[in-house]
Amino acid sequence: MRVKTTVVCLPVTDLQRSLGFYRAFLERDDAKADGDTIVLELPNLSLFLMQRDGFEAYSRKAGRTALLPGADAPAIVSCAVETREDVDRALERAQGHGGSHAGQPALDPAWGGYIGYATDPDGHLWEIVCPHQA
User: Fold this and answer.
1) What count of Cα atoms within 13 Å lies in the side-chain half-sphere of residue 73?
2) Does 2 reside within a domain?
């Protein structure tokens, strides 16, 4: 099998709130909603944020329902950035646009990367990593 692209779909409860969050969090002023979906083209990943009803119609094809994370993290979306300041800014933007961040970013003692965690307004967990000590 030869994979041409990878898409991750996440359900959201309020498309406009999510649009505001992801524009700020990922610094994507070009992000916009198309129907009940926001499509964000990221390096090596297409992220589809789908209004919960639309996501559920899509996931029902596979016999699944649309679940939102709540206090648990069924998945973690991780992305690498260039500097520690990028990590810090992303966490600040999350907090200021309806999301939150968990604790303070810190160096990972196992391999030294600088890591912070944030959630979007629906609780989807993001790990923002600066892999080196920039």
Assistant:
1) 13
2) no
pLDDT, one tens digit per residue, over 26-50 is 999 999 999 999 999 999 899 999 9
Please report where in the chains the tokens 């639309």 appear, as a residue: 54
Task: State how many domains the chain has.
Answer: 1
Q: Residue 60 has what DSSP assignment?
A: G
**pLDDT, average across residues 47-63:** 93
Q: Which tokens sit at 125?
A: 């967990």
Q: Are 43 and 28 in contact, with CB atoms under 8 Å apart?
A: no
Nearest-10 crossing angle of helices 15-25, 84-96: 150
The answer to whether 116 and 108 are in contact (CB under 8 A) is no
**CATH classification at residue 41:** 3.10.180.10
CB burial of residue 36 (10 Å; 0-12, 13-18, 19+): middle
80 pairs with which residues across the strands? 129
Tens digits of residue pLDDT in 71-99: 777 889 999 999 999 999 999 999 989 99
